[in-house]
């Protein structure tokens, strides 16, 4: 039987050290917001109700295509990964769900569910994997999967996705994310139209296997592993997929999957407007699909994405419930610390976006007052919302300072003794 790893007493005693300071910071921010007509309690309650899912593959140390340097206490499999995810949730109270990757996390669904239940965790979208070959598979994905020229290879990839749905149903997931690396490295290597047609045909088969209350998310990525062309390369293609498949199909936006300088927040707005935004893989990047910690490179862009989400929430867009998930690879940090920090950064962007004075912003836009419109965003972004984030954690039983509490718990040291030193990291080298 799984048990929670961080003692409640430790969280309480660490919180006691900073409780008075937290209260005074929270009260001061409350007074300041009140002067601008904002009720801090409304913001805190919204932040406390905002959750982001942790990727199972993110709790192991990641790597590059050159090397992987495992840390102490690397998870040996999905059950260790769930234990690590529970630590993140215990301290942040922002990550009650885990997103699984099959076959990396393949195990008896009953045991998966029991282990997660005991830790108080649930499951977000399932992720299929047809971008690498599993040990026992008959047909290779070297030249593609759902868009492969060979029907038998496509069928194998379709069956794998249906298996992911079946596992997901057994553990309480409600969505399947499909990302394929299919593409080509040379002009002429593949026929753009035919490979997209084959991809759509395969996805239609998977779509047919979706339970009524499930959604399917297609995830686009400009390049890598294919370096000349990629079958699902941008949001335009992604929108066509969702539109072609039907009402249960939506687009997933991974923040690292775009050309440099792409206006991602505008893509988010378009997908919302045309009712096809399915969810996110949050991370940050400088050059490509770097999978760096959310908010670590361009926190303003993260804020601008949330500005669109809050705008939609405010306008009461019907059936608007995008899935919020993290997709990162931690190569030089303790993955648990990175995920704690990322969950907080994502909540921070949400809290800041909630502070935008939308009425004033709308008026500045209508007046063509570019400077003041931009200033309304900056004003919200500049607000230090940390006391709100800490308060949301504290009230839900988490830590005022989750990283300090995590370090104090010596959890890494403890699991380093229990789990043998291994070469295993996240899921493969990602
Ligand atoms: C592809 C990707 C996709 C995979 C994950 C491991 O780059 O973003 O979401 O499932 O990485
Ligand atoms: Mn992703
Ligand atoms: Mn990626």
Features:
430 residues; Xyl_isomerase-like_TIM-brl; 48% helix; disordered C terminus; Xyl_isomerase-like_sf; alpha/beta; 3-stranded parallel β-sheet; binds manganese (II) ion; metal-binding
Q: Got a strand count?
A: 11
Q: Helicity, in percent?
A: 40-55%
Anisotropy-based shape = globular
Number of helices: 15
| Largest sheet descriptor | 6 strands, parallel
Measured distance between first and last alpha carbons:
31 Å
Uncertain parts: 426-430
Structural class: alpha/beta
Mean pLDDT, all residues:
96
Structure, described:
- Keywords: Isomerase, Manganese, Metal-binding.
- This is L-rhamnose isomerase/sugar isomerase.
- The strands form 3 sheets. Strands 4-5-7-9-10-11 form a 6-stranded parallel sheet. Strands 1-2-3 form a 3-stranded parallel sheet, with helices on one face.
- The two termini are 31 Å apart.
- With 430 residues, the chain is an alpha/beta fold.
- The chain contains 15 helices and 11 strands.
- It has helices at residues 8-35, 40-48, 78-92, 109-119, 151-171, 192-208, 235-245, 264-273, 299-314, 335-354, 358-366, 370-382, 386-395, 402-409, 411-418, and strands at 54-55, 97-99, 122-123, 126-127, 175-178, 183-184, 215-219, 229-230, 249-254, 277-282, 323-326.
- The model is unreliable at 426-430 (pLDDT under 50).
- The chain binds 6-deoxy-beta-L-fructofuranose and manganese (II) ion (2 copies).
- Residues 221, 254, 256-257, 289, 327 line the site of one manganese (II) ion.
């Amino acid at each position: 039987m799984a048990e929670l790893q961080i003692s409640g007493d430790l969280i309480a005693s660490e919180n006691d050290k900073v409780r008075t300071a937290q209260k005074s910071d929270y009260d001061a921010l409350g007074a300041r917001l009140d002067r601008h007509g904002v009720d801090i309690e409304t913001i805190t309650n919204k932040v406390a109700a905002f959750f982001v899912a942790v990727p199972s593959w993110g709790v192991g140390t990641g790597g590059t295509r050159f090397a992987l340097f495992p840390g102490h206490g690397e998870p040996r499999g999905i059950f260790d990964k769930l234990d690590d995810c529970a630590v993140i949730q215990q301290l942040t109270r922002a990550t009650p769900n885990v997103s699984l990757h099959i076959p990396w996390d393949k195990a008896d669904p009953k045991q998966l569910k029991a282990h997660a239940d005991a830790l108080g965790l649930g499951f977000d979208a399932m992720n299929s994997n047809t971008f690498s070959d599993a040990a026992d598979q008959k047909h290779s994905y070297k030249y593609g999967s759902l868009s492969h020229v060979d029907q038998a290879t496509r069928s194998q990839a379709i069956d794998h996705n249906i298996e992911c749905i079946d596992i997901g149903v057994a553990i309480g997931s409600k969505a399947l994310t499909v990302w394929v690396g299919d593409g080509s490295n040379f002009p002429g290597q593949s026929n753009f139209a035919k490979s997209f047609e084959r991809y759509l045909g395969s996805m239609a088969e998977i779509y047919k296997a979706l339970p009524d209350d499930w959604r399917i998310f297609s995830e686009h990525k400009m390049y890598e592993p294919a370096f000349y062309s990629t079958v699902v390369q941008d949001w335009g293609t992604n929108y066509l997929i969702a539109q072609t498949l039907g009402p249960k199909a939506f687009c997933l936006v991974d923040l690292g999957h775009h050309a440099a300088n792409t206006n991602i927040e505008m893509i988010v707005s378009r997908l919302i407007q045309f009712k096809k935004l399915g969810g996110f893989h949050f991370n940050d990047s400088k050059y490509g699909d770097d999978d760096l910690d959310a908010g670590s490179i361009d926190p303003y862009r993260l804020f601008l994405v949330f500005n669109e989400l809050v705008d939609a929430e405010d306008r009461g867009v019907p059936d608007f419930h995008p899935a919020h998930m993290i997709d990162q690879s931690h190569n030089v940090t303790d993955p648990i610390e990175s995920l704690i920090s990322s969950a907080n950064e994502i909540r921070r962007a949400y809290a800041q976006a909630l502070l935008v004075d939308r009425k004033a912003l709308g008026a500045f836009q209508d007046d063509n007052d570019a400077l003041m419109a931009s200033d309304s965003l900056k004003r919200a972004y500049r607000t230090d919302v940390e006391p709100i984030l800490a308060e949301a954690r504290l009230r839900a039983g988490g830590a005022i300072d989750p990283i300090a509490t995590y370090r104090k718990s010596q959890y890494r040291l403890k699991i380093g003794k229990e789990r043998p030193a291994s070469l295993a990291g996240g899921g493969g080298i990602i």
